[in-house]
Amino acid sequence: MRNLRCQKNVIAYHNESLKELVWAMEASEGNFLVLLAHCNDSLLQDCIRQHLRTISELKIQEIFIDKSDTKLYTFIEAKLINQQASALMVCGLESVIDVDKVLITTNIVRNDFKKFSLPIVLWVNDEVIVKLQRIAPDFYSWTTTTQFAVISDESRKTPEF
Q: Which domain holds residue 90?
C-alpha cells in the first residue's frame, strides 16, 4: 500500500471538488442537506477530511459509524445530542458488516432525517454508492455527489520547469 500524504499538489488536484463541497455545506448551514463525498481511497479521504476542516468556517463534527451498527439515523441522532456542530461528516459506511440493512433502514426512515438542521456529508466508496442507488433510491434522490478520485503517481509529481 502506498503512502499518501496531504501534499499540496494532491489538494490542488482536488481544489474544485473541495470548493464545491465546502460551498454546499456552508450554503446549507442550519438546513438539512445530504452530500455524498465519493472516494475509494481511505488515505485520500483522510487527507480531504483534514483539509476540509481547515478551509471551512463551519464547526464540522466527524463521526465514524460502528461496523455492527444497523441504523444510520439513530446513530447520527445519538452522536448529535448536546453537540453544537454546524455540519456533520459520517465515515465508515464501507466497513459496516450489514451495510444493506443500514441502507434499507435509511430509506425507510428517510423523512426523519429532515429533523437534522445541518448538512450531512456521507463518505462513500464505489460499493456503497452503488448499493445506495439500488437499495435506498428515495434517500439517494436527495443527495448531491462530489467525487474525489485517486490521482495517478504521474500526476502527483511536481512539474519541472
A: 31-150
The DSSP code for 10 is H
pTM of the predicted model as reported, rounded to 2 decimal places:
0.88
Q: Which residue has the higher pLDDT, 138 or 43?
A: 138
- DSSP secondary structure, 97-123, as one string: TTHHHHHHHHHHTGGGGGG--SEEEEE
Residue percentage of the chain with pLDDT more than 70? 89
Question: CA–CA separation, 10 vs 43, rounded Å?
Answer: 11
Q: How many domains does the chain have?
A: 1
- d(CA 63, CA 86) in angstroms, rounded, equals 13
**Residue recorded with cell 430509506:** 107
The answer to whether residue 102 sits within a structural domain is yes
Q: Is residue 106 part of a domain?
A: yes
pLDDT at 82 over 90: no
End-to-end CA distance of the chain: 30
Question: b/e string for 8-22 if b means 16 or more Cβ within 10 A?
Answer: eebbebbeebbeebb
CATH number at residue 71: 3.40.50
Compute the Cα dihedral for 15, 140, 26, 85 and give only its sign.
Answer: negative
